[in-house]
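Work Package 3 (structural annotation) set out to generate three-dimensional models for the target panel prioritized at the project kickoff. During this period the team completed the workflow that converts sequence records into discrete structure tokens, so that structures can be stored uniformly alongside our sequence database. As a representative example, we reproduce one entry of 278 residues exactly as it appears in the project archive.
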Amino acid sequence: MVQAYAGDAIVAIIAGQLASLAATQRGPTGPFELSTGFLAAGGLLAAILWKENLAAKSPSDDSSSKPSIKEAIKVVRDDPKIMMVGGVQSLFEAAMYIFVLQWPPAIAAAIAKSFGEGAGTPYGTVFSCFMACCLFGSTLFGQFAKMKGPTTEGVTTGMLAVATIAMSTATYTVSTASAASGLPALIASFFAFEACVGMYFPSIGTLRSKYIPDSHRSVIMNLFGIPLNVLVVSVFMFVKYLGVNGALGVSSSALALATLCMVKLNGAIAKKSEPVAA
């Protein structure tokens, strides 16, 4: 799992540089034109190399055996740990999606303050740096996973706390930064957050496999996708009034709540592991 996310990050680093080069040569449409070629190549390779993978059906397989939404809700209500894991997923990914559409204007404004209104923003290079931070984060999680001491729950709690501090710092910097210090502080906080994103995906995958039963996992994860989408859509419906600073503030709040969910999960685990008094 960690290797897969690391591979994605490496590809994204290269893609950022290629997109930057394409934009230089062809203007704003250059990256989209370049992506068309990669999509066509991927489709061709899939058509030639991929084989159809169909699971063998048994006589007992029918639609009635599939878990319903009502059953999935009951499973979540019966185990608070599932609620905490789902809360972390919804809140962190909502914060991440808000960040994805807010970092370009935030970086551009900080560069304009530091270098003047005519200064260009190297979006492709910044994106590649973000993906390098993701690679660092996923690699760091892999190293923690090999150690005997740290648990996935403990590492995830620490990661969420760092992500909350980083996004809060970015929010404060956007609202109050001066030309002298705004850009370095903003870049540092964004880099720290992206490293946390790199740690997040392998960690949430591990937590899902540990606490959410296979029989209901897909339905439960779809249920937790509802508040995620509601939060993201709500922010972008009102982004005109929130501004970049307000949107990042919502992202910071979501990360703080995700950290609280992990703290509660750790508390539930500790309580369960306590020896029963005679």
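The chain has a mean pLDDT of 85.
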